Amino acid sequence: MTKELLQDIADSQMVLIGIGKEMEESYQGMKEDTFYGPLLAQAEAEEDSAAIIQYLQCHYVRRHPDHRIKKAYETLTALLEGKNYFVLSLSEDDYIFNSGLDRERIVTPCGGFRKLQCTERCNAEQESLVTDDKVILQVLEEIDNCNGDLSSVDFPVCTDCCGILWFNRIETPGYREEGYLTQWEKYTKWLQGTLNHKLCILELGAGMEYPSVIRFPFEKVAFFNQKSVFYRVHGKLPFLTEELSERGFSIKTDAITFLSEEGNQG
Ligand SMILES: [Zn+2]
Questions:
Q1: From first to last of its 266 residues, what are the pLDDT tens digits of the chain?
Q2: Ligand 1 centre and the CA of 159: distance in Å?
Q3: Burial degree of 210 (CB within 10 A; 0-12, 13-18, 19+)
Q4: Domain residues of the chain, as ranges?
Q5: What residues have their beta carbon closer than 5 A to ion ligand 1?
Q6: With contact defined as beta carbons under 8 Å apart, do 168 and 117 qualify?
Q7: From the CA of 46, how far away is ligand 1's center (Å)?
Q8: Nearest by Cα to 25 from 77, 60, 76, 55
Q9: CATH of domain 1-25+67-109+177-266
């Protein structure tokens, strides 16, 4: 991490963070794993395979969190301590909710593993999302104890159509955006309040996935706020537009490595 960034965060009144897919859990190694491999193969044969795979991924990420990603969030938490910040994240792995960051200052428009929903096939009127963590913890426990046989796991079902509930994630058919809208409103209000304030913008690993959520709007915010500085960190796509060259820093390092470099605690 650069000295300039630490100084700019210290000097700023507000800090806007964007987290992209580069910071996200990759689930690499699940297929080869002796526990998850056979379960994934069984899931593939099921009608609702994509939903069941979500549960297996949720189990994987909660039981075997990636230490580098965890560490990256610890660094970020330390970096933002005492600051007026907001984090907009495209990650769906929920590491951010298990970090020390303030949940009230986070919005995750792609969803994650904290809420369940039925799909677009369901006839039920906009039924509310299932947000009871106990339901999810129960499934995870059943997966722990399933002895390699998914048929012994009772996946939660919709009270209306009896189909398996999916996680409230962007790839779920009929994704229910109300899962993040309350936080989104807070975010847009907070963002409006950044104008004329010394703002430090830090974009971490946001490439061209959903560029209209982080990448393009952040450039615009930086462009219109003359008191802002903009750091774009990405392993492959760190490039900045010409207009931002004076107040912008382009760092060609993947976001997790960037946050785990030595000497980043300031
Ligand atoms: Zn349903």
A1: 689 999 999 999 999 999 999 999 999 989 999 999 999 999 999 999 999 999 999 999 999 999 999 999 999 999 999 999 999 999 999 999 999 999 999 999 999 999 999 998 787 766 679 999 999 999 999 999 999 999 999 999 998 889 999 999 999 999 999 999 999 999 999 999 999 999 999 999 999 999 999 999 999 999 999 999 999 999 999 999 999 989 999 999 999 999 987 544 43
A2: 7
A3: middle
A4: 1-25+67-109+177-266, 26-65+111-176
A5: 118, 122, 158, 160-161
A6: yes
A7: 18
A8: 60
A9: 3.40.50.1220
